[in-house]
Write a structure and sequence with these properties.
heterodimer; A: alpha/beta; ABC transporter transmembrane region fold; Rossmann fold; 2 domains; five-stranded parallel β-sheet; four-stranded antiparallel β-sheet; 18 helices; elongated; B: alpha/beta; six-stranded mixed β-sheet; 10 strands; 60% helix; disordered N terminus; disordered C terminus
Chain lengths: 555, 602
């Protein structure tokens, strides 16, 4: 078990400076506590045995007040420094995680579930509070203060020092043992939490379906049983992780009891002074205090550390190499050469090696039975999916070696299930051209046959409040605007699947208009769309056939 | 969403919060009792040890100290054992409470779908369900119980000191109150803005993270990912600023607590000294009086955290309550009669209209004055552009939305007098966005009829032409379909959901766009298969695609929420209205479509 993951210090640079501040504050607090103990012991023994009055201890009282104020200032400093450093580290890790997702491309991240990553980037990082602002500084404090106080107690009364020296290692041993097994169980707890959030999202999104089949109540029970499983897992973790603090509490209070009793017995014999005895009694619990605080923060910290390690693991995964070649600004041809795709998942069909070229001002329809891999081929052309064999080229540059930004700059893509972002209709249309004017947005919307749609209309996450047809038309407008703004390769995945016949014709007309001087590849199912194309490429189990232009398409 | 003016008063919301997050009483008080005893043992240990050492310094006979020696050891043991037990009991209390809240939350969500749910973003809902509901466990664990334990232990310490030196007890009581009440109040006052913002910004951040993850393909393809990352960075920066400003107040609170503890010890020494000189306090007791405050303040150490935790759990509670308080779109009748299966027909809408009660712009279109009659073996098609009210019509039939006018009868019974679940046993739906659950093909199908065997499953799959595909899969029916059916193609998803709807054996069934995303031959074949499979049932076919409609008994054309025309296919074609116009533009060129031709050539 590593106390501090060195990767954390490397990834979040501000963390090492903060740990240094903790060391300084820790030493100062130790000095204050020691001063307070000595002052109190002297005061009590002078009054009790020495017969001093209020004036006799006035210097001690002034000293005591001063020490109190100093300790208050130190705990203020510690608290603020910890909170600030944590906020910065959280932000750095979150940004790192998100940048990583964008840089690595969409197909990389599909291995990690959305629920899991959301969990990590929000709640997981919030759990870092307990780890980074409590546990880590406490670890530093403990490493300094506990041995220091053993030394001080030893110097005051060596027999009490021996008692502490014997009990402290036992406490440490139990802490490590309990901590080790708690760490394993914490990972189980995280998995339970992930299952719970994935399961709940699944239920929440499927509630309508569940109601249709009268199964909502049964799923409610399933949510309950998942939650109870969560409770059981968590309680098992706690039973063990609280053991470490139990052993701590036990040895801490027992050693105070042992120190008190043996010091008391030696006082009767007169082999120790009252003043020294009181100092020892006051300092003995302080030697254990840091360990107790550490134990108390361990359980909460384990969650944060587990999350941190998951994030660091993700950040350490090798990213697919990024190409650097810039594509020419005026591309002469786009070619798909012998592309095949193998998916680990056999439920998705794999198509035979496919080659075809695209020419400017020509609309090519990509056809084939449902599920034969048409959308997958578009993913390959976008550079989102690495083909098993073959490549896609724009002039001499292949997709694998191309700089992603420059490659995608040529493309306006209309996915089969477009994802809209929360915001307004206009905001979504502007996705690929943030500086487009209102007029341009309105023109694009009109082309996509959504004249009736108010550009200022707010839309929810994922366009959940729109009909499939509306979502599709907005995505079309988005694609059209990007085309107007310089993209010259249109990849359209069933652009008219959710549209009624008149709207479909309108949209196809707009595509025809935009196809002038550009490359257009369109996945198509419906006769109107297939007829419309100049040429079809059929994707299937066999060798893809190219078909000549039809007279119908020219009319 | 609720406007700020409607947010209930602070006291009112605290009561709601307590009623929402009330821990089980018996276990809760057990935990509190254990906590007070544990802290009390700590005070006892220090007091006993202080007396032991003071008394020993007078060098009495050892027998005079026996009780104190035993006392020190017993307190030391009890402290650790009690604390461990207390922690287990209190966490168990909190988690049990959590399970109850989660259940109530899901129960509250159920009647809100599909009409009222989309108001909340997916990420926001996740935040409400997981983070906010989890946040509520802080209420018993880090607020109610620590406060009860601290109060009990402080009272115990003060009363012990009071028997020895009342003036010192008074100072101890005063400093304890300042540390326990004034300092946290000041912290919370200083943090009031920060805490209010924190939950909101966290939810925004969570939404932003989900957007980035869900829409990553679109965002990357459109070069918009850097901009979204920048927005995320800005939110993160805001969160960091809030954390900084609340750190300031927390720091002051921590400092203030240290000052209070110091004052109590200082006063105990000063007052104790005078009392010893005046003979009001035995010298042996001086160390006891000075050391007890140190132990008493240990109980208060968690209080500043408790105030912050209360603020957080209140915010979380408000956001959870907001979801739970969303009014349900349909009022369920109080009596739960069953429908007589022998007397279901006709199922009819008469002059029926409906609108969604939530006024947000995203609500589906309203519908007015629709007549519809369903009989076994009769198929009605509902066509119209998107936004014409087709989905609202299906919601009316499924009792997902309340009728605002007209009547909905099932046989002789008014559907409003029957539980929604009972209506849905008769009228089924295969929705456009039917959810495919993250499970196996078998489990997704068995949702419709949990008791059915594999032969029945295969039969349903055959009817939607999916059996061949399933049999070719290595895992067959046990193939996992992935989150939201991601491992299926669009067409497979659709056919799977149709198979599921057929399996449920509803006497009347609504198909909402069953063929979108299917290629034309498959789509036409599927519609024909559907009509055969549902030949003995009442069927409503909602579609924007005008194919195979010559087979249905009646076509209703919806426009802007009301019926534009109705009749059989040939009648409508003859009438030359909007239907005829759309049909011609869709089918005019199909005959010469080379996709059809290429199929024929093979």
């Amino acid at each position: 078990m590593r106390a501090i993951d060195p990767r954390l210090l490397r990834r979040a640079r501000s963390s090492s400076g903060f740990l240094l501040v903790c060391v300084v504050i820790g030493l100062a607090i130790a000095a204050c506590v020691f001063g307070q103990a000595v002052t109190l012991a002297m005061g009590i023994s002078r009054v009790f045995l020495g017969g001093a009055d209020f004036h006799g201890i006035s210097i001690l009282l002034v000293l005591l007040a001063g020490l109190t104020l100093m300790r208050a200032a130190l705990s203020y400093l510690h608290e603020t420094a910890a909170a600030r450093a944590t906020a910065v580290v959280k932000s750095q890790l979150r940004q790192g995680l998100m940048c990583r997702f964008v840089d690595a491309g969409p197909s990389w991240s599909s291995e990690h579930r959305t629920g899991e990553i959301t969990q990590l980037a929000t709640r997981g990082l919030d759990a870092l509070d307990a780890y980074f602002s409590r546990y880590l500084p406490q670890l530093v404090l403990t490493a300094i203060i506990s041995p220091l106080f053993v030394v001080v107690v030893w110097a005051t009364d060596w027999i009490s020092g021996v008692v502490l020296l014997l009990t402290l290692p036992i406490v440490l041993l139990f802490m490590v043992l309990a901590g080790l097994s708690a760490q394993r169980r914490t990972n189980d707890r995280w998995r339970a939490l992930e299952r719970m959030s994935n399961h709940f999202l699944d239920v929440a999104e499927g509630l309508t379906t569940l109601r249709v089949f009268g199964r909502a109540r049964a799923q409610r029970r399933a949510v309950q049983s998942v939650t109870h499983e969560y409770r059981r897992t968590t309680m098992t973790v706690l039973r063990v992780s609280f053991l470490s603090s139990f052993v701590l509490e036990l040895f801490a209070s027992l050693s105070v009891a042992i120190v008190a009793v043996q010091v008391g017995l030696r006082l009767i014999g007169g082999s120790i002074e009252l003043e020294a005895a009181l100092i020892v009694l006051l300092l003995a619990p302080e030697a254990f205090q840091p360990l107790r605080t550490l134990g108390a923060s361990y359980h909460a910290a384990a969650e944060g550390r587990s999350a941190t390690e998951k994030i660091l693991d993700i950040l350490d995964e090798p990213a697919p190499p990024l190409g650097t070649r810039i594509t020419p600004s005026a591309v002469e041809f786009v070619a798909v050469q012998d592309v095949t795709v193998h998916r680990a998942d056999a439920s998705i069909a794999t198509f035979a090696p496919t080659s075809f070229g695209l020419r400017r001002s020509e609309v090519v329809a990509l056809v084939g039975p449902s599920g034969c891999g048409k959308s997958t081929l578009l993913s390959v052309m976008l550079g989102f999916l690495e083909p098993f064999a073959g490549t896609v080229r724009m002039d001499g540059v292949s997709v694998a070696e191309a700089d992603r930004q420059s490659w995608l700059g040529h493309i306006a893509w209309m996915p089969q299930r477009p994802t809209l972002v929360a915001g307004t209709v206009a905001g979504n249309v502007r996705l690929g051209a943030p500086d487009a004017t209102d007029t341009e947005v309105a023109a694009a919307l009109a082309k996509a046959a959504c004249k009736g749609l108010d550009p200022r209309r707010p839309i929810a996450q994922n366009g959940a409040d729109l009909s499939a047809g509306e979502r599709q038309r907005i995505a079309l407008a988005r694609c059209f605007l990007r085309t107007e703004r310089g993209a010259d390769l249109l990849l359209l995945d069933e652009p008219t699947a959710h549209l009624d016949a008149p709207t479909e014709l309108h949209a196809l007309g707009a595509i025809r208009q935009l196809s002038v001087g550009r490359f257009v590849l369109m996945v198509a199912h419906r006769p109107a769309a297939i007829d419309f194309a100049d040429r079809t490429v059929e994707l299937g189990a066999g060798i893809p056939e190219e078909r000549p232009m039809t007279s119908a398409a020219l009319s | 969403m609720r406007s700020p003016s409607e947010v209930p008063s602070r006291a009112g919301s605290s009561r709601r919060l307590l009623s929402l997050a009330a821990p089980g009483r018996r276990r809760f008080f057990t935990a509190c009792g254990l906590g007070v005893l544990a802290v009390g043992s700590g005070v006892g240990l220090i007091a006993c040890a202080a007396w032991l050492i003071s008394a020993a310094s007078l060098q009495p006979h050892i027998a005079a100290l026996t009780v104190a020696i035993v006392g020190v050891r017993v307190f030391a043991l009890a402290k650790a054992v009690l604390r461990y037990t207390e922690r287990l009991v209190s966490h168990d209390v909190a988690f049990r409470m959590l399970a109850t809240i989660r259940m109530r939350f899901v129960t509250a969500l159920e009647p809100l779908s599909p009409g009222a749910l989309p108001v909340y973003h997916r990420g926001d809902l996740l935040a409400r369900m997981v983070s906010d509901v989890d946040g509520l466990q802080e209420l018993p664990l880090r607020v109610l119980q620590p406060v009860a334990v601290a109060a009990g232990a402080a009272a115990l310490a003060v009363s012990i000191v009071a028997t020895l030196l009342p003036s010192s007890a008074a100072v101890l009581a005063a400093t304890l109150v300042v540390a326990a009440v004034v300092a946290p109040a000041a912290t919370s006052w200083a943090n009031r803005h920060a805490e209010a913002q924190l939950a909101t910004v966290r939810a925004e951040l969570s939404t932003s993270v989900v957007t980035l993850l869900n829409a990553r393909a679109d965002l990357v393809a459109y070069g918009a990912a850097p901009q979204h990352l920048a927005e995320l960075r800005e939110l993160d920066a805001r969160l960091t600023r809030i954390a900084r400003s609340s750190a300031l107040a927390t720091g002051v609170g921590a400092g203030l607590a240290v000052v209070c503890a110091g004052c109590a010890v200082w006063a105990a020494l000063a007052l104790g000294t005078s009392a010893v000189r005046a003979g009001a306090l035995s010298g042996v007791m001086l160390a006891v009086v000075v050391l007890i405050p140190l132990a008493a303040f240990e109980a208060l150490q968690i209080l500043p955290t408790a105030t912050l935790a209360y603020g957080r759990s209140r915010q979380c509670g408000e956001r959870v309550i907001e979801v739970m308080d969303t009014p349900a779109p349909v009022i369920e009748p109080s009596n739960v009669g069953r429908l007589d299966r022998a007397n279901l027909w006709p199922i009819s809408l008469q002059g029926a209209g409906a609108r969604w009660s939530n006024t947000h712009s995203s609500a589906p279109a309203a519908v007015t004055d629709v007549d519809l009659e369903l009989m076994p073996g009769r198929t009605v098609a509902v066509v119209g552009e998107s936004g014409a009210g087709k989905t609202t019509l299906s919601a009316m039939l499924l009792r997902f939305v309340e009728l605002s006018s007209g009547r909905y009868r099932i046989g002789p019974v008014d559907a409003r007098n029957v539980a929604g679940d009972e209506v849905r046993r008769i009228v089924g739906l295969c929705a456009q966005d039917a959810h495919i659950f993250d499970s196996t093909i078998r489990e997704n199908l068995r949702l419709a009829r949990p008791a059915c065997d594999d032969d029945e499953l295969r039969d349903a799959l055959r009817r939607v032409r999916l059996l061949g595909w399933v049999e070719r899969l290595p895992d067959g029916l046990d193939t996992h379909v992935g989150e939201d059916g991601q491992r299926l193609s669009e067409g497979e998803r659709r056919r799977l959901s149709v198979a599921r709807a057929l399996l449920a054996d509803f006497p009347a069934i609504v198909f909402d766009e069953p063929t979108a995303n299917l290629d034309q031959p498959t789509a036409d074949a599927l519609v024909r298969d559907l009509l055969v499979a549902t030949a003995d049932r009442a069927t409503v076919l909602i579609t924007h695609r005008l194919s195979a409609l010559e087979l249905v008994d009646e076509i209703i054309v919806l426009k802007n929420g009301s019926v534009a025309e109705r009749g059989r296919h040939d009648q409508l074609i003859l009438a030359g209205g909007p239907y005829a116009h759309s049909w011609r533009s869709e089918h005019g060129r199909t005959a010469s479509g080379h996709w059809e031709r290429s199929r024929n050539e093979r």
